[in-house]
Amino acid sequence: MKTFTSPMKGVTLSCSPEEVSRARRAIRVMLTERFSQNVVEVIEQCTSETVTNAIVHSASKDNGGKVLLLVIELWDRIRVEVIDGGSAHSTPRITEPGTQYPEHGRGLFLVNALASAWGSYVDETGGNVWFEVETSK
């Protein structure tokens, strides 16, 4: 019987806006040669939104904290997890365009529209927002 071991790669990011472009580049480097351009672009966009949220809204931005970007290749999809320091003031939620602040609140709306699935959880160690994108192998 042949088993499948999920390849997993990670990148540790500091909490500065420049790290969002670094996260996007990391996605391209990890996935471009093996997956379609459309799949890579969707993952790149969702990564950009979730990493931005972690940098802006989590406790990781305090005291030089970090954000961990994990990319896990599953049999028929890519799972990306963005792990941060959590937040005592907000939880990940979808904001419909035009309902709150014109410049903010659309990140998870886009993730919800583009990804096959997404979710989040918070515990005493921090927060995790994840999403999955189906691939054509």
Automatic annotation (TrEMBL):
Domain Histidine kinase/HSP90-like ATPase as annotated: residue spans: 16-128
Keyword RNA-binding assigned: no
Gene3D superfamilies: Histidine kinase-like ATPase, C-terminal domain (3.30.565.10)
A Pfam family the protein falls into: HATPase_c_2
InterPro entries documented for this protein: Anti-sigma-factor_SerPK, HATPase_C_sf, HATPase_dom
SUPFAM superfamilies: ATPase domain of HSP90 chaperone/DNA topoisomerase II/histidine kinase (SSF55874)
Domain of life: Bacteria
GO MF assignments: ATP binding; protein serine/threonine kinase activity
CDD domains noted in UniProt: HATPase_RsbW-like
Record's keyword terms, sorted: ATP-binding, Kinase, Nucleotide-binding, Serine/threonine-protein kinase, Transferase
Keyword Zinc in record: no
Alphabetized PANTHER family for the sequence: ANTI-SIGMA-F FACTOR RSBW, ANTI-SIGMA-F FACTOR RSBW-RELATED
Protein name: ATP-binding protein
